[in-house]
Amino acid sequence: MGGVTHGMFGTPEYRAYRNALNRCRRESDPRFGSYGGRGIEMRFDTFEEFFCCVGLRPNRKYSLDRIDTNGHYEAGNVRWATAAQQVASKTTTTIYTHLGRSMTLGQWCKETGVPYKKAWRRLNTGWSFPRSVGLE
After folding, report:
1. pLDDT of residue 84
2. How many helices (H) and strands (E) does the chain have?
3. Which stretches within 1-136 are classed as H helix?
4. Residue 53, Cα to own-chain centre: how many angstroms?
5. What angle do CA 5, 10, 13 make, to 5 degrees?
6. FRET pair for 18, CA 20 to 30 Å: which of 5, 34, 72, 90?
7. How far apart are CA 22 and CA 31, in angstroms?
8. Within 13 A of 124's CA, how many CA atoms are on the CB side?
9. Which of 85, 128, 23 shows the shortest CA–CA distance to 93?
10. How far apart (Å, rounded) are the C-alpha atoms in residues 114 and 28?
11. What b/e string do you get for 99-128 counting C-beta neighbours within 10 Å, with b at 16 or more?
């Protein structure tokens, strides 16, 4: 006997695991350069170990995420996250700090009620961050 015994082949959880594994280990994967090519490793030895760590995906709005985008796929650094959570943790996302609070531009706009495109335009025409999002 051999093969898969966990009974989860084809589930969203198993697909997330396999996709992450391929991004880290298969040079032929189109995303390898952003993952394995820059040193990101899959440190779970088995799907079962991975699943014990992340559990079931809460719903369709969630996908696999690394909390530290420069860290490995390993216990303590993987979670199911929404698209908004993932955008906030991308290496290319700018975090703005005002009066000791740090958030993305989108998060600040949601809090202040200033439309994102308006704030972005203001920032890109030389306005200060606080003024751009209506904090001054």
Report:
1. 81
2. 6, 4
3. 12-25, 47-54, 83-88, 105-112, 116-123, 129-132
4. 16
5. 85
6. 90
7. 9
8. 7
9. 85
10. 43
11. eeeebbbebbbeeeebeeeebbebbeeeee
pTM for the full model? 0.67
N-term to C-term CA, the chain = 68
What pLDDT was estimated at residue 91?
63
d(CA 125, CA 36): 38
Contact partners, residue 55, CB within 8 Å, separation at least 6: 80
List pLDDT tens digits, range 89-108.
666 668 888 998 888 888 88
- The three-class DSSP label of residue 66 is strand
Neighbouring-strand partners of residue 77: none
For residue range 4-43, list pLDDT tens digits in order: 678 899 999 999 999 999 999 999 999 999 999 999 999 9
